[in-house]
Write the structure tokens for this entry.
Amino acid sequence: MSSLASNMETYLKKLLRLSAVGYIDIKRKELAAKFKCVPSQVNYVLETRFTLEKGYLVESKRGGKGYLRIRQLDVSSEELLSMILEEIIEGQITDNKARDFMQRLFDGRLISFREWRMMEAVLDSLNYIEDDTLRAEFRGWMLKKVLFTLISF
Amino acid sequence: MSSLASNMETYLKKLLRLSAVGYIDIKRKELAAKFKCVPSQVNYVLETRFTLEKGYLVESKRGGKGYLRIRQLDVSSEELLSMILEEIIEGQITDNKARDFMQRLFDGRLISFREWRMMEAVLDSLNYIEDDTLRAEFRGWMLKKVLFTLISF
DNA sequence: CAGTGCTCTGACCTTCTTTGACCTTTTGTC
DNA sequence: GACAAAAGGTCAAAGAAGGTCAGAGCACTG
């Protein structure tokens, strides 16, 4: 229960609660030093505890003056989250389901007309990918990313 | 917190905003002195932050009375879109270029903040495609589709 | 006690930044 | 015109992050 990873998770979530702007910036190496572990352990924590599905968005920049930014998604959209999760169960999603889903989002005024059209264009463009499995998997993956992003802004 | 390069970028953009003529003239050595760095660092900033894709044009003159002139391009929406489309005509496009273009579309108020974020998420998700060539080609293909959609709505 | 699924580490990779040595162009002076 | 001085330009290498991945360790569970 109180593994290094869990402690780091708790610590980061506390920082997030205390943050006024809805996100926190951290230095991978410093955080690792604070918890006396290797830097890659930080990645592990981010990958397992701060995923899109759990309501977080992680951005980063490499190189000098790099950083990790953890953003907490708006809780009010929890309903939408579970909807998405249900639909995109195994990562894959069919073209029809994806389009139905976008239509629902538009009908429910969660996305604008232009946003809807844009996503339709993206879905259209997927035909460029010939491999059926890759296409379906990528569609699910991408949809998840886009929808979670829409939720957080 | 932020890097020298980012600070210099911010500074130059502020100067540009304040300029009435649409361009600014600077002395490489003086700017370097102001930021306490080597002169070639100025070139780095210009090469990475003030590119054509990002909507800037840099002219210069060497020798005595030399200077650097940074010009902000002020192209119309149609021009910007056709520029982008032209660029993608060869099919492929790099991730960086695609992101630069999206940023410009946002800066030029051709797309909303949410639409910008959405497209960034789509670009992020492309990493799911492992094949380098397929990814770059698909990126170009998709971008074209989306841009054409934007034009028509 | 073998299997399964988290944790954790370390070696190696990629990206972005910064510096410095050396090069080229332009201007001013004899 | 030759030469010196005054810019700016190029490029490779070092430094400063963060990213990836395979495998070792560990803790339950049947």
About this structure: Residues 24 and 45 of chain B are 15 Å apart (CA to CA). The radius of gyration of chain B is 18 Å. The interface with chain A takes residues 1-3, 6, 112-115, 117-122, 124-126, 128-129, 134, 137-138, 141-142, 144-146, 148-150, 153 of chain B (CB under 8 Å). Residues 77-152 of chain B form one domain.
